[in-house]
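In this section we walk through a basic example: taking a raw amino acid sequence and producing a predicted 3D structure, encoded as discrete structure tokens. The instruction is simple. Fold the sequence below.
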Amino acid sequence: MNANSQPPSPLTLWLRSQLLADPRKSAVMAVLLLVAGGLAVKFLSQGGPMPAAAGAALLAGPVNPADEGADLALRDDPEGSRYLANIDRTVRRDLFAVEYGLYPVVEPQPADDPDADRRRLLEQARLSLEAQAAHQQAMILAVQAQAQTLRLQSTIVGERPSAIINEQILALDDTIQGFRVVRITRGHCVVEKDGVEVTLAME
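The resulting token sequence is shown next.
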């Protein structure tokens, strides 16, 4: 070994140990070095970085020859130059103002009430029960008013009870003016019509 040669640095030793320990890592490093070398050669062959003007031209896209020729002709023409010089470049509206007319206002929709259907059904049921109760009460009053024309004159109790109503002798299940005799007791007779019972008392 040459006495003047310096020992390798710790970084070199560590890198060498890592590459020898993992062949896959060594292959990846070799590929990356090849790619970096290729990019460096391509960069140097193009003569350095691209000028800013050329880059801007590339970003702007291809130039239409017809448009470029029209622009040059307009600038070379004295009248065209005066036209370009006298163009009013004043911005006559606020660029940051919001034109609310372009954005129609959408009225917020009321949130769905999960209990709305249940409350509606309960309200309908309540109204239906009230209507039935009113109808039943009206029927009771009508039957009671009709029963006012019946006069219980006498009752006979025993094996075959009977009652005299409006001078007619009636037994159980007999009818008079649409009323059916359902029960006869001493001094009282119960008649029924349309499911409504009315108790008649002797005068």
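Looking at the output, two observations stand out. The helical segments are 10-21, 23-45, 52-60, 65-76, 78-85, 116-147. Residues 52-60 have pLDDT under 50 and may be disordered. In the next section we compare this with other chains.
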